[in-house]
Design goal:
Layout lengths: L8 E5 L13 E5 L33 E2 L29 E2 L28 H12 L9 H22 L1 H7 L3 H8 L12 H13 L1 E3 L17 E3 L8 H14 L1 H4 L2 H11 L8 H17 L9 H4 L3 H19 L6 H5 L5 H11 L3 H16 L4 H11 L5 H11 L6 H8 L1
Helix pairs in contact: 3-4, 5-6, 5-8, 8-11, 9-11, 11-13, 13-15, 14-16, 15-17
Length: 428
């Protein structure tokens, strides 16, 4: 029961499915006819026993509504009137929505256009209901789905996405528990594992976690993207031991294999190469020659989490072999498409020029891709202030390359694409 105790208006809401006469509107405003004095507002003892007693009311705010439900302007329903507004159906208040466009009526371009007249639309008409479904569902109307069915499917899809996001956080929770041995393989345990949905930022997050055994201090997270918080303070993970560099390389190459966003990202390559590019002496020429086939075989035979680095390849030159393995993967990446920006990637080779020469020799078998690669270098050198720092390094490599590669590099790096200050360095 509801009792009014003050003058004003009472809103009565009805169901959209209620077809009883006099209840077509989803929002009714009922005027209280008699002024009720303040002294009469005190509920009687009998009213205190009721389930609900209204002791105060005020004028109602009109909420957004379809034009046919407007409490201010009367609406005249018609089955399919499109020639002109029926009676005063074109009149609107600030909260009227177009039933067809599902936007404010004031924004509807077809509101009172002859032959269309959205102002006459309402949910009791089969004609207007079908037009609304075509407008909102588009090509989905071919599946004979109602809006409510579409909504239920979308809600199910949302639940599935939320479930997937929670599953993708399991490796993170393993890391926070210090269990890298389980977190590491679980990221790329299958083609559709969490790593396949990595962003470059998320890859760099896990690479840093595995390398340093630290993690950012975060509030509880519910989505993987919440792990990437630039301003967070990183702290040591209790009982966690950093992964050794061979395992870091395996992790990175596995992710690149299943995630194209990471594979094409320049910063991801730069970070990985930085890990394996500490200054080191050049290995023997025989090792450099034999390593081409070994690296190619390792990358070719890589399947899922099963990447094997032969002991015979790794034990003689442990540091050099990892650098060559990543460089070999980079060579394949360059042959795949242009790397941009490329200068930060090349900068990681400054202390190991022999490895950069090995990279260029690997590319020399495909003259077109090598030319594109060098042109990209020249273009970036001419557009960056840091190019002068890299030119001496690149120039020192040219004489040791094969003749075809050397001449191509020389022509492109000496071209007009390089800024004048860089040209002077090339001439020295």
């Amino acid at each position: 029961m509801c009792t009014a105790a003050d003058s004003g208006e009472i809103i009565i809401l009805s169901s959209d499915d209620d077809d009883d006469e006099g209840k077509d509107m989803s929002c009714l405003i009922v005027e209280v006819e008699e002024e009720v004095k303040k002294k009469d507002c005190q509920p009687s003892p009998s009213l205190l026993e009721e389930d609900l007693v209204v002791t105060f009311s005020r004028h109602a705010d009109v909420l957004p509504h379809a034009r046919f439900d407007c409490p201010i302007h009367p609406f005249t329903p018609a089955e399919m009137e499109t020639r002109a507004p029926a009676d005063s159906n074109q009149l609107i208040c600030d909260q009227c929505f177009c039933y067809i466009c599902d936007e404010l009526a004031s924004l509807c371009k077809m509101w009172s256009v002859s032959g269309i007249c959205h102002c006459n639309s309402h949910k009791r008409s089969t004609f207007w209901s079908n037009l609304r479904n075509q407008k909102l569902l588009g090509g989905l109307t071919a599946f004979n789905l109602t809006l409510s069915e579409i909504d239920s499917h979308l809600r199910l899809a949302e639940l599935m996405v939320m479930f997937q996001q929670i599953q993708d956080l399991i490796p993170y929770f393993m890391c926070m528990a210090g269990n890298f041995s389980l977190a590491f393989p679980s990221l790329s345990s299958s083609v559709n594992g969490p790593a396949s949905r990595f962003t470059p930022e998320l890859f760099l997050f896990y690479l840093r976690v595995f390398e340093t055994a630290t993690a950012p201090k975060l509030t509880p997270v519910s989505k993987p993207e919440q792990l990437c918080c630039p301003g967070a303070v990183w702290e040591s993970i209790k009982d966690a031991v950093p992964l050794k560099r061979p395992e870091l390389v395996k992790f990175a190459l596995r992710v690149q294999r299943c995630c194209s966003a990471v594979y094409v990202d320049s910063q991801c390559w730069t970070s990985l190469l930085t890990i394996v590019s500490k200054p080191m002496p050049m290995p023997s020429l025989q090792f450099l020659q034999e390593s081409r086939d070994v690296v190619h075989r390792i990358l070719l035979e890589q399947k899922g989490t099963n990447m094997q680095i032969p002991r015979s390849f790794h034990e003689v030159y442990p540091d050099q072999s990892l650098l060559l393995l990543v460089t070999g993967a980079l060579s394949q990446r360059i042959l795949y498409s242009v790397v941009h920006p490329v200068l930060p990637v090349l900068n990681t080779f400054k202390e190991n020029g022999w490895a950069f020469k090995w990279l260029c020799d690997s590319l020399s078998s495909n003259e077109e891709h090598l030319k594109s690669f060098i042109q990209g270098i020249a273009l970036e050198l001419g557009n960056t202030a840091d190019g002068d720092n890299l030119l001496p390094f690149l120039r020192s490599i040219i004489p040791t390359l094969s003749s075809g590669t050397s001449s191509s590099l020389a022509v492109n790096l000496d071209s007009s694409q390089v800024n004048p200050s860089s040209q002077s360095l090339l001439a020295s």
